[in-house]
Protein 1
Amino acid sequence: MTGKDHMPDGDFLGKEEAVFLKLDQISFSYSGKKSAVLSGVSLSFSRKGITAIIGPNGCGKTTLTKLMVGILSPIDGAITLEGRSLQEYTLAQIGRRIGYVFQNPNHQLFCSTVAEEIGFGLTSRGEEPEAIRERVDFFLDYFDLLSYRDQFPLHLSYGEKQRLAIAAVLAGAPGFLILDEPTVGLDAYRKKLLLNQLYKVAAMGGGMVIVSHDRDLVEQAAGRIITLENGRVKQDSGWKGENGHAS
Amino acid sequence: MRLDPRTKLIMVLCVTTLAVIYNTAEALLLLLAATIGLLLLFGIDLKQVIIGLKPYFFLLLVLFWAQCIFTPGGEVLLAIGPVRLLGTRGLLLGTSVVLRLLVVIAAAVILTTSNSRDFITGLVQWKVPYEIAFMVSVTISFLPVFRDELVNVVTAVQLRGVELKQVPWGKKIYLFRHLFFPVVYGAILKAQQLSVAMEARGFRAYPRRTYLRQLYLTRWDYGLMLACPGLTLLMIGLYKANLG
């Protein structure tokens, strides 16, 4: 199974697929900086398939993902989520729709134990303790974190933190995922495990965007590849069928 | 106006000294207004400061209520049966505590307008032992780290679906453990990593060091360094005279 097995039918964004997240002529620059990080970026994403965003360092990939989840606000242009302006949503409402894995796992781990970290989203949603425990156990086992169950997350190695950050987001079963450099710090075996889990999410009808420099991951998993350069979309391969990503 | 970091340090010392000595809400409010005026003079974006302080507002509110509830004396303003919830003295003391903290935080923001290395250079030029100058500099450079860490944690908690504004008061305490624990512990870890990284590059607090860059005090610096402590003493004198 590969990411391409879960691509929307039809060409770019699929005629049958409803637009989940839409960026319309987005521009952004950080305060105090004259040059824009992103300018005139227009993209649409449905809740199916794996999209990869690639590009050299500093081209605006992470900034783009932060705009997509409302951490940053564009200085120009509009972002809509399920047809409504992203500004109408609180971060928590966005978080329930989009799971976001930060580029640096240290920025998103805040609980006192590994198990608590994975179950945090489920607990705050008021899910049954038994269901939470079951799901936490599954992800601890799946991401090889069982022996760290009661450890303090910030004491883990970088790769372990990365796995934990991904597990904590996946445990919430969001319908759409944005993963910023998810394979940094993962060995080949763990990378394969992550990919399998992402395929499962895609098979269950969840769309996702992966920002990555990992050529293997992109070529293996992505059904659509967007190339950013100097804050602009240089190329968007669109969904082109079984072998159709960027040529 | 580009001031020497030592001038800024003295200004902040003067403001915080006044904040500690002033004990009335009126005096502290005036001091806060003056400190905000200083921030504007330094070209600091107040909006950004307020956004940065947002996560601390709850803590300030808790401090305020703690003072209101546990300070005896004064006229009772709110009570449930025999239990006094709010008195005039508690209200004034709570307001004073919050204002004092705001003054100290606002004054500390002034220090972030200079490079932390300049503080070391400046203090060493004043013959302050390098160890102490370095400690001051590290403390100052950690202020934005604390702020950024807190912003990250608040964002991460919300992105896991938690509406911070709608969390009931009882659960807020539990949630704040999540907000502050990783920030404080993360800062300790960062400090440890910093010390290892520095020692790995051969850092030692040798008494004799050389500096490429030298700081020079301008007339403005000399003027402010004399005026600020003088003004502070005058304000303390006036305040004590008013109280007496």
Protein 2
Amino acid sequence: MTTLEVRDLVKEFTLRSGLRRSTLRAVHKVTFTLVPGRTVAVVGASGSGKSTVARMIARLEKPTSGTITALGPDGEPVRDRAYRDHVQMVFQDPFASLNPFHSIEHHLARPLLLHGRAEGREEVREQAAQLLERVNLPTALMDRRPHELSGGQRQRVAIARALAPGAQVIVADEPVSMLDVSSRLGVLNLLARLQQEDRLAVLYITHDLATARHFSDDILVMNRGRIVERGPADAVILDPHHPYTRTLAAAAPNPELRGRLRSAEPEPKAATDRDHLTYDHDAGRWIDIDADQPAAA
Amino acid sequence: MTTQLPLPDGLADLPPGAPGTTAPPSGRRTGWRAVLPTWTPKLAIGLGLVAAVALFGLLGPLLAGDPNTIRNIGLTGPSGDHWLGTTQTGQDVLDQLTRATRGSLQIGLFVGVLATALSALVGVVGGYAGGLVDEAFSLLSNVMLVIPGLPLVIVISGFVPAEQRGSWTVVLVLALTGWASAARVLRAQTLSVRNRDYVAAAKVAGEKPWRVICVEILPNLLPVLASQFVFSVVAAILSEAGLSFLGLGASNSSTLGTMLYFAQNGFALQRDAWWWFVPPGLIIAALGCGLALVNLSLDEIINPRLRRPGRRRNTPEKADRSPNHAVRSTAA
């Protein structure tokens, strides 16, 4: 069982226009912990920094500051070389995340070989077949190429690839946003089932509040690089405190309001002085992450 | 993920082969098949020309006599004994032509392989690594691009003494001056491929950089590589012919260029001995034309917009656009 601790994660990108340079802070002091058997959802608009968090956890980007530590079953930090045995990622676009040149078997065999899960052709094929079965795909797909599969099937292959090294922490970066509505639920249920079977720690990145509420235990709401609200899923969705979360919640279609005038809905509050604060539902108060002390409520 | 939503009927995991599970047949072709161009008249003519010239160069020397035999029938026109006539010193032009074609093809092939390997190294590694390596490699290929090719080749070839100027010298010189533009094309394509998600996924899986380049990126560059290879073969054959014509070619080999060089030295043009200089010129033209046509077909893979619609055999007829049209097509 692996726990992932993320502390004060900051990512800055350098922007160059001509000779001028400026820095863009994409992620500002993000802190959370992924625990085995629990799903944490990160919700936010495009550009809020949630994918950057995912890429940093997958070690595709280097954090500007802050730490990401994977703690093994013994509670000791995982060493650098073993990090990828523990933490894997599922990408957003299943049409881009599988190499069109290679067969499905290649995509599963490489991580199996790299992480020493299997040796020799026979064993690799056997294990790859098992992985396909775990994600509800027929083993006959093994010799197919990605373009012969549907979006949902490809995303299942991508999930199988993430499981191949025996990862205990899965970062799913909007795993269903590129899929047909009809196959979304199947992929999400698959993730939920695998998580229960293996007691995985899952970071579920999405902009869909409804699936975040259904499939996750905790929700972090991100806006402009900051976590603006955090807490148990139901509390965040049903009792939003931060103005941004309220806007998000209000943007979700509400069947009960059907037919009424839009202006009848309560207008979400305009930006306030609380924009830079974080509301923590567990603590029940506002927190100023820059000041390291509780803010006045 | 503690809750599982019930799936509506019919959306549950469908058994393999059930309708809806397989992807709709798309126009995108992948894997090895993507490397092969579609069969078009352009490609057929190109391949035919190249194959004919290659066969001529490959099998011709086995059937032909000694091209260096000197006879006392100088500069006679085509006849039953000598199909393409003789040179000033009575050598058979056809015999010479077979040897020369083989020599030109050899040099073209070697230069093509070398130049493509060099450009792949500089372009792909630079594009993937980025940063200082990329800057250095880019600078190198830009400098090579700016230097005018043929004058440099002439200077280098002139610098090497004639007796040491074997075909390998010529191959090396041509390869070193001909890789730069291909490297730039490959770099641009690598920059596009290296940011795709499957490359990121390979990194997350823990692949080493050289494996990411060779196994994940390079196969997807194959169409570009193939096209650049064909292009550098054409360029090599033409510049080798140019060099030899100027008397700067390999001293001990016979190529189409050396044939033209000797024809010019023997005043073939002034003496109306067309059989001496037209055949080598035609072979160069046929080879260049064929390889260029093959290259154009390869370009269609890289840039699908060049593909003309309606070429594919299984394009569904647009009969249902208007009732009138449908009636007409059924009547026809």
